[in-house]
Amino acid sequence: MSEKLKVGIVGGTGMVGQRFVQLLDQHPWFQVTAIAASSSSAGKTYEESVQGRWKLATPIPEDVKPIVVQDASKVEEVASGVDFVFCAVDMNKDEIKALEEAYAKTGTPVISNNSAHRWTPDVPMVIPEINPRHIDVIEAQRKRLGTKTGFIAVKPNCSIQSYVPQLNALLDFKPTQVVASTYQAISGAGKNFTDWPEMLDNVIPYIGGEEEKSEQEPLRIWGSIDNGQIVKASSPMITTQCIRVPVTDGHLATVFVSFEKKTSKEEIIERWRTYQGRPQELGLPSAPKQFITYFEEENRPQTKLDRDIERGMGVSAGRLREDSIYDFKFVGLSHNTLRGAAGGAVLIAELLKEEGYIQAK
Residue 277 in contact with residue 347, Cβ under 8 Å? Predict the structure, then answer.
């Protein structure tokens, strides 16, 4: 494309916002032209606003350092300078819903990293390789919001992407019961070890609200559109436990699954290795070439070794074997702030651009 689309990051000073800044640096289609945050950051340059709290290993991209941070609540002002926005704000759900709808009503597409709209019936919650056609519900959403070009699309919870892609590749075998335990990195809470020293040498067996999300959001991903709304699937039955572990990045899952139709280990691995989705068909810039990587080694995938596979946008699996109670069990892994957060949202934006939902204003 000759000119890049102009992008705003609403909530650009937090950890996920910083990931957006990092990932969009030198992006072939998108360019950050606006960053918005709370009123306490407004008026400062981006470099000043994140001084002493830049959480990533790579330095702040030079192009964004001089951008003056805007007040995210001044919706019209922010929206006027961009073609679409990513949203990753730290507010309560009702405030987030109102803010995102306000941006959408200006005719500005909103790609949200937040959970507030994940269960709004006409808002698509998308993993692009799995349910790309859920974006068709945007037409009904636009009618509700009274806009021809604005809308909201959201990415799902970061932890489900460590096991839902592997299960999705096996839907033909009709999974009936799933038990998943996720071992989640501290960056999922927006923290590092400097912020959260009590996580060193520690495991916390509770993450508020995470188990409910992990059990219900996959069913919405596998749902269908009916009368302008997404209706969640009724199966499989999923139960989870979500545990915080002393790891910087990467969510690992142990999964047990039973199927209605009989299958074999060899057939499952073949499904994983050959699985492709719409991003691979379109050759989207952020899409992994190999969506699911299977490791034959007994001690893989490992969080530290394998979270960055395919630039952090691939997911992996290993230790597939038959189980004495369920049919099979396996281990899955995904990078929670790349595939599971900002990177997944960028991939959604690329899909929406290619499908004609995001255009220059």
Answer: no
Amino acid letter, residue 26? Q
Banded model confidence at residue 51, pLDDT cuts 50, 70, 90: very high
Domain extent at residue 187: 159-335
Half-sphere exposure of 361 (CA within 13 A, CB side): 15
- Looking at the predicted structure, is the pLDDT value of residue 266 above 70? yes
Which residue among the candidates 87, 117, 134, 251 is catalytic per the annotation?
251
What does residue 31 show for φ and ψ, rounded to 5 degrees? -135, 130
Q: Looking at the structure, do residues 140 and 282 belong to the same domain, yes or no?
A: no
Active-site annotation holds for 251: yes
The residue type found at 206 is Y
pLDDT above 70: residue 1: no
The partner residues of 5 in beta bridges, in order of sequence, read: 30
Average pLDDT (261-271) is 98
Q: Are residues 96 and 150 in the same domain?
A: yes
Same domain, 12 and 139: yes
In a domain, 167, yes or no: yes
CB atoms near residue 2 (< 10 Å)? 3
Residue 87's DSSP bridge partners are 10, 112
For the chain, give percent helix, strand, coil, nearest 5.
35, 25, 45
Pairing mode, if any, of strands 251-259 and 328-334? antiparallel
> Catalytic residue at 158?
yes
DSSP state of 67: P
* Averaged confidence pLDDT in the chain: 97
How far is Cα 14 from Cα 32, in angstroms, rounded to an integer?
16
User: Is residue 25 a part of any domain in this protein?
Assistant: yes
| Calpha distance 246→229 (Å, rounded) | 39
- Predicted pLDDT at 190: 87
Same domain (yes/no): 142, 220? no
pLDDT reported for residue 2: 58
